[in-house]
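// run 5 | inverse folding | seed 20
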């Protein structure tokens, strides 16, 4: 894979994945696909080509693929779970209509396609703990419905037309670069911002709300490694469970307080996000990803917390308070 189009390159995952792919494939075109109003800026704009690609417009996708001789498409266009509940028709148009457009272009132009699925592809009647790779997928949200449809459509295009479609089910992704916006797992990003800025965090989910989470560097590596995996070893394609850590608000709060003891959290529940979270698994079993393409996470809650706090302090120019040493 050398010439890559990222659809949704200015979003939470896209902005970091585009930069990472440009480092990974320095000789190729790594094209930042963006929509009007979300144009790339700064390093993202300066480090490589950019092209307007609205996923609901198949002609625009085809134009970018032809112009840059694209062989791989990363389709990152989606509304996250909570926003999708407010705009279900748009969520379907982008998540399913957009994927259909992408797969059709890929079929005609012979491109591989990565389209992330999510822990949101499961529902309340899925086994919640160590959720198996192959299990019941009857999601309660429109976000989940688009993700399961996307998994099935992508598998269909692989079987029927030989399109090289691959995917992982992302947990909540945590990063200090671009904020997520509109997801159920967003609290696990927001809590770090509040802690570093010295603000009291209002937690939208109640204690005991466990979900899988992952630090962005692991997620980016997963997205690249699955596309590089030896196809002969893949039993599954769309989509692999991947996991690195599972926690609830109490656990992440306690972990941050080990590093910022004065940090305070209060509960101010968001009924929509709570309902969505209650329908999602507590933790996924990622054995198939480990066995079929060697998936291994590198970050746990402790190493992620140290890295998040360090980078957010740098981002906001906040110096770490001096540690008070007791006099002997
Ligand atoms: C969301 O919360 O909607 C996403 C996801 C887990 O897919 N972060």
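// decoded
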């Amino acid at each position: 894979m050398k010439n890559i189009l990222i659809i949704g390159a200015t979003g939470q995952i896209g902005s970091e994945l585009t930069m990472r792919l440009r480092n990974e494939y320095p000789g190729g075109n790594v094209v930042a696909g963006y929509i009007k109003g979300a144009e790339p800026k700064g390093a993202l704009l300066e480090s490589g080509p950019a092209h307007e690609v609205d996923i609901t417009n198949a002609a625009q996708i085809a134009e970018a693929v032809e112009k840059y001789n694209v062989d791989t498409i990363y389709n990152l266009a989606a509304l996250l779970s909570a926003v999708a509940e407010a705009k279900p028709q748009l969520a379907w148009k982008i998540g399913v209509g957009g994927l259909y457009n992408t797969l059709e272009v890929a079929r005609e132009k012979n491109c591989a396609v990565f389209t992330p699925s999510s822990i949101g592809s499961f529902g309340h009647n899925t086994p919640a703990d160590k959720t198996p790779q192959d299990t019941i997928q009857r999601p309660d949200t429109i976000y989940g419905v688009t993700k399961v449809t996307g998994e099935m459509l992508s598998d269909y295009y692989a079987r029927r037309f030989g399109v090289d479609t691959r995917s992982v089910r992302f947990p909540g992704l945590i990063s200090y670069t671009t904020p997520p916006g509109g997801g159920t797992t967003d609290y696990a990003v927001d809590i770090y911002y509040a802690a570093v800025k010295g603000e009291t965090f209002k937690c939208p989910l109640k204690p005991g709300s466990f979900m899988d989470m992952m630090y962005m560097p692991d997620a980016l590596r997963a997205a690249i490694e699955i596309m590089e995996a030896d196809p002969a070893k893949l039993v599954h394609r769309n989509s692999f469970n991947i996991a690195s850590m599972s926690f609830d608000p109490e656990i992440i709060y306690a972990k941050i307080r080990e590093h910022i003891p004065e940090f305070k959290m209060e509960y101010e529940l968001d009924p929509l996000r709570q309902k969505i979270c209650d329908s999602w698994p507590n933790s996924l079993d990622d054995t198939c990803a480990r066995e079929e393409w060697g998936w291994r996470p590198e970050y746990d809650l402790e190493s992620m917390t140290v890295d998040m706090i360090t980078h957010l302090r740098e981002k906001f120019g906040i110096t770490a308070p001096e540690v008070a040493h007791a006099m002997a």
